[in-house]
Amino acid sequence: MKFMKLGSKPDSFQTDGENVRYVATELASDIVVNVGDVKFYLHKFPLLSKSLRLQKLVSDTNEEDDEIHIHDIPGGPVAFEICAKFCYGMVVTLNAYNVVAARCAAEYLEMYESIEKGNLIYKIEVFLNSSIFRSWKDSIIVLQTTKSLLPWSEELKIVSHCIESIATKASMDPSKVEWSYTYNRKKLPSENGNDSHWNGVRKQLMVPKDWWVEDLCDLQLDLYKRVMSTIMSNGNVSGAVVGEALSAYASRRLPGFNKGVIQSGDFMKNRLVLETIVCLLPPDMGSGSCGFSLKLLKVAIQLECDESVRSELMRRIGQRLEEATVADLLICATAGETTYDVETVQKLLEVFVAHGQEQQSLLEDELQEIRSPKMEHPGISKSERKRICRLMDCRKLSAEACMHAVQNERLPLRVVVQVLFFEQMRASTTSSSGGTSTPDLPGSIRALHPGESHGSSRSTTTNTEEEWDAVATAEDIKVLKGELAALKLSGGSSQSSDRNSNNAEKVAANKMKGFLMSKKIFSKIWSNKEKNGEITSSDTSESPASTVVEETKSTPSRSRRQSVS
Questions:
Q1: pTM of the model
Q2: What domains are defined for the chain?
Q3: Measuring CA to CA, which residue among 525, 517, 543 is closest to residue 478?
């Protein structure tokens, strides 16, 4: 336990009977302070030099009257005596048991730094922050002492600081715990040295995750509830450990709880304890075993708890009823001819069956959503959609996949254009009977597919985001679908003509027809995109039509080569 000594003079306070305290000194006392039933015969100078409140009280009294009364000081005569000894410079020892009373009494007496440097309030605050709040068990002891000093301890934030200190330590990684704690659970064989694989070298023992649960059982119910709520809100302690803590507290505070029957104690107090424990149960089903919940239910029935408490316990038990044993389900009947409560067990079974049906229904709905052809991951974000589309190789798509891509309203426009481009390439290649020539496309269109950006007057990364973000409308997709079908028909007719007649002129005519239709499709896409305001200023400055004109002017030989082929 941490402690702090103040002052250096020997303690010269003397007692005369039960209700008189005085200082053994040659100087006669010149003030009498009444604290409750105790009279303190003291001297004004050391008291008034450190207490602003005593200065006010003395100034308000008559000069002939040397007696003042302070009956409402927190901590009573014991706390006042500590403050008085500090004023005299006598040795005072502060520890976890008396520091809160001394702090509240010092606040009451207004022993501030403005009165004298290094006054009592300052020294106690240093002790609390540097020692008490850093100690696990001292924080718990101090928190227990705050109960009798309300509302002073609450207003001075001693209660909240203790709770935060305890909750922070309980939420720490167990491997970082270096302070002493109470733990009476059964140890593992390896911890006792009884492990069959133990080589005789004792390793450093690991701190269990529930190392703190027994120490908190010393707290009163209201403080325990606040500490547990803070621990749970921190989010670093699992529901299973919280369940262990609640089980330990129930075993400590409810006599006979482990047997499922309360043997003695205050009826109303026991019911309040149980209702608080049920209120603290985490929502996840992994907090506490099914057997623990059944014990709570048995005691709740015996203590005649509210229906809401019993319904909550039955709901939790019903969702994990497969873990229960026969002995767990033997609930004693409080009234009637039967020995055991059959009706409660029947309700538990009904909850269990209903929960199973609900889970089955949810599973079927989930499977139905997965199998549904209408779903293209409806909740996927724009960035995720882009990453998935970049992984897709449009060259390897089958004809059916290409048609599906064109019909998909959620695909980015860039992907739709790439699919149409490679489908047109496939049709052109097939129509030329094994030839590899492909029609030239405008630079702005070639920039939309990999490896074809060399003919464009700008790089493919200039307006990548706009091209990815653009999504074809339903009207665009309908037009693309019809014209893609027409493109396929033109490709098919060219194959038949080439195979039957081997007429080079008809093949060239069909190729040019396919090229013109492909260019028409791309022009419609870009015109719709421009109409919807999806092209930036840099995009509109170079439309597909202008690109074709520029390329025709700059490279006239290309047009001639195309017509000759």
A1: 0.62
A2: 1-134 (3.30.710.10), 238-362 (no CATH), 388-428 (no CATH)
A3: 525
